[in-house]
Amino acid sequence: MAFDLEQSYLDLIQTGVGGGLSKVSQPPFSKDELARARALTRRVRARFATEVRALKKNKLQLPEAALTTLRGLLLHFEAEDVARLLRINSPSAQTLLGPEALTSLRNCARQAIWLRVPGDFMECGTWRGGACILMRAVQNVLGAGTRRRTWVVDSFAGLPQPEGLADAVLHAFLKEAGSFAVSLEEVQENFARYGLLDDGVQFLPGWFADTLPHWQGQLALLRLDGDWYESTYTALESLYDKVSWGGFIIIDDYHPVIGAYDAVNDFRTARDITDPMVKVDNQIHFWRKLPPNN
Ligand SMILES: C[S@@+](CC[C@H](N)C(=O)[O-])C[C@H]1O[C@@H](n2cnc3c(N)ncnc32)[C@H](O)[C@@H]1O
């Protein structure tokens, strides 16, 4: 079999950026980690004591999906679950995406180029930038790097305080792990490590609500990974009309535990979007924006 240089290059980048939450690479939790996780769980439960009491008495008036989430986070979260969250910021990876998610992203990016869907690529919610690094690598290796840009959009100061109760409880846990705060300089350094910090990489720092409504351009691929309801809805509202026909909309957090799930469902209902969702794993989904009457 002939050596496929393009595939080998992208495999290398993918392996380099990946592995953030891979269970395989996780050593067992130490006693200190578990003690820290238990202490955090106690603090979060104390902070949401009213909700914990109401949950136990079945008196919280919320949709069943939200109640399931809250029961999981506030009543049933084990020390190992919390310890895993606390490890999120370990410096071993530039993305939280696992191998399947990265392979799927790479395939979407390649298809967008092969199918000549007009526009740039963008990720809203980038953390250390790994998914964007892979997206830029695909553009460059397929010879599209001078015609298409990769937009890296983030507060570069971590997650904002969310409004919904379930998001707020999850945030109370994530805050202890730094709320995904990574500076713009650190993300730029990560691009540079792979030789990919070039003029086609554009950074859009700030809160989505401040930056995205003013963004001008066209997108062939939009990846949303901002977790919360408001972050996701704002991004869809600001950018959906800028995605070309045939473009890819990838939602990282399409899981009932995370506010993004309701945001996507509400947006699709509001805009009457029926393009089929493709499931990548138990969280990530994407759809292609098909022209009317397709
Ligand atoms: C789960 S992390 C993203 C993970 C990343 N895509 C990866 O490949 O590992 C969520 C990111 O969204 C950003 N974020 C969430 N809501 C935001 C908002 N409203 N404005 C700006 N950044 C936001 C956070 O700063 C954080 O970096």
Describe the overall structure.
The chain has 294 residues and is an alpha/beta fold. The protein has 2 domains: 31-86, no CATH class; 99-288, 3-Layer(aba) Sandwich (Rossmann fold), CATH 3.40.50. The chain has 12 helices and 7 strands. It has helices at 5-17, 31-47, 49-56, 64-76, 79-86, 99-114, 130-141, 165-176, 184-193, 208-211, 229-239, 259-270; strands at residues 120-124, 150-154, 201-205, 219-224, 243-251, 278-279, 285-288. Helix 11 links the parallel strand 4 (219-224) and strand 5 (243-251). The structure holds S-adenosylmethionine. S-adenosylmethionine is lined by residues 95-97, 123, 125-127, 130-131, 154-155, 158-160, 180, 207-208, 225-228, 231.
Please describe the structure with a list of short key phrases separated by commas or semicolons.
seven-stranded mixed beta sheet, globular, binds S-adenosylmethionine, about 290 residues, alpha/beta, Rossmann fold
Outline:
With 294 residues, this protein is of the alpha/beta class.
Q: How far is the first residue's CA from the last residue's CA?
A: 39 Å
Q: What is the count of structural domains?
A: 2
Q: What share of the residues does DSSP label as strand, in percent?
A: 5-15%
* Percent of residues in helices: 40-55%
Biggest β-sheet strands, sense, barrel? 7 strands, mixed
Which residues form runs of ≥5 with pLDDT under 50?
none
Which CATH top level class of the largest domain fits? Alpha Beta
CATH topology of the largest domain: Rossmann fold
- The CATH H-level superfamily of the largest domain is Vaccinia Virus protein VP39
Strand pairing plus helix content: what structural class?
alpha/beta
What's the overall average pLDDT, rounded?
92
The shape is: globular
Nearest-angstrom radius of gyration? 20 Å
Number of helices: 12
Number of strands: 7
Helix and strand pattern: HHHHHHEHEHHEHEHEHEE
